[in-house]
Structures are given as C-alpha cells and as structure tokens.
Amino acid sequence: MKTTLNVIVGSKNPVKVNAAKHIFSLYFPEHTIQCQGVHAPSGVPDQPLGEDETRIGAENRVKYCQAHYEADFYTAMEGGAEQFSYGAATFAFVVIANSEQFSVGRSSNLPLLPPFFKALLAGKELGDVMDEAFNNVNIKQQGGAIGLLTNHNATRESTYIQALTLAMAPFLHPTLYNQ
C-alpha cells in the first residue's frame, strides 16, 4: 500500500494545484499524492509588480500555509510582471518548503506588449487584461496569458511545472544543499 504525501498549495486556483500535484507525483511515484489548495494571503497586491514583490507574495503564501496546516510539503506560485531594460515581461516565482528546507524558484519570462504592461501599472490584473484583449473569460484558471500569447504551445501550468521542477533540487539532494 502506498503511503500518502500531503501537499498544501497556497491557492485554490486549479492550475496551481494541478502543477503542484504533477511535480510531487513525478518526484514521489511511490506515494499517493494528496494535494490540497487553500486560501493563503500573499500580502502583496493582486497584480505584483517587480521581482521582489512577486517573490515575497509566494513566500508569504507558503509561510501562511506552514503556520495554519500540517503537511509534508507546502508550495505557492505567484505571477508578476516587470519592465526590464529589454522590455516588459511576466513571470512567476515558486516556493516549496517542508519542515527543514525552503526553496525559491523562478519561471522564464513571457514578453508583454507595452499596452498590456501599462494596464498593469494602472492597477489591472494580467488575467483581466488578457480576457479583454482575447475576448475570453477567466483565462487565469486556464492557460493564462502564456497560453494565449504562445498559441497554447506553453501554458501557465507548464510554466509553473518547469519552475517547480527546478525548485525541487534542494529536496532531492539535501546533503549537498545543506553543507
């Protein structure tokens, strides 16, 4: 009989919960993965701007989950945007933690059109901007801006999966990372 690995995800968004379940199933195939999404406040604006604000949002979600739930692992994903020297982009920070370790990872960038970034600066969320531009409803719980702007060759979930995959390294090799 498989033992259960309990994972708390600091969001009820099914895209984030599915990404977490995918990663833990990949790395722990001998376990039954119990992955639960919960409301966890980020402590940052609904649309984080800048790498620090985005990372802090993901960290805050995980810390909230650790303080309020009992689990083997905790994870959170936070999407943000920034104007870099080469142009505006959206990205995500991911955090994975257990009782001994805390790992931060970051996704790759998706270039953003200048009018989209200006809308974010004006206080809109990227999901709402994308819904408006593509005449869609609730894209943030589907493929996200990534899906729409890559013709669905990548999705919000696939981007979270890649970032989470890399952020798992310290848990796979704790003796190396804890020297």
UniProtKB/TrEMBL annotation:
The UniProt keywords, alphabetically, are: Hydrolase, Magnesium, Manganese, Metal-binding, Nucleotide metabolism, Nucleotide-binding
What Gene3D superfamilies does the entry give? 3.90.950.10
**What does the note accompanying the cofactor annotation read?**
Binds 1 divalent metal cation per subunit; can use either Mg(2+) or Mn(2+).
What InterPro entries does the database record attribute to this sequence? ITPase-like_fam, Non_canon_purine_NTPase, NTPase/PRRC1, YjjX_NTPase
Q: Carries keyword Membrane?
A: no
Residues the entry annotates as binding Mg(2+):
70
Residue positions binding substrate: 70-71
Q: Where is the Non-canonical purine NTP phosphatase/PRRC1 domain?
A: 10-172
Q: Which reaction(s) does its UniProt entry say it catalyses? A: XTP + H2O = XDP + phosphate + H(+); ITP + H2O = IDP + phosphate + H(+)
What cofactor requirement does the entry state?
Mn(2+); Mg(2+)
Q: What is its EC number?
A: 3.6.1.73
- Report the enzyme's class at the first EC level: hydrolase
Q: Which family does it belong to?
A: Belongs to the YjjX NTPase family.
Assembly and binders:
Homodimer.
PANTHER family linked to this entry: NON-CANONICAL PURINE NTP PHOSPHATASE_PRRC1 DOMAIN-CONTAINING PROTEIN (PTHR34699:SF2), PTHR34699
Its annotated function is as follows: Phosphatase that hydrolyzes non-canonical purine nucleotides such as XTP and ITP to their respective diphosphate derivatives. Probably excludes non-canonical purines from DNA/RNA precursor pool, thus preventing their incorporation into DNA/RNA and avoiding chromosomal lesions.
Question: What HAMAP family is this protein classified in?
Answer: Non_canon_purine_NTPase_YjjX (MF_00648)
Q: What is the protein name stated in its UniProt record?
A: Inosine/xanthosine triphosphatase
Species of origin reads Pseudoalteromonas lipolytica
Lineage, top ranks? Bacteria, Pseudomonadati, Pseudomonadota, Gammaproteobacteria, Alteromonadales
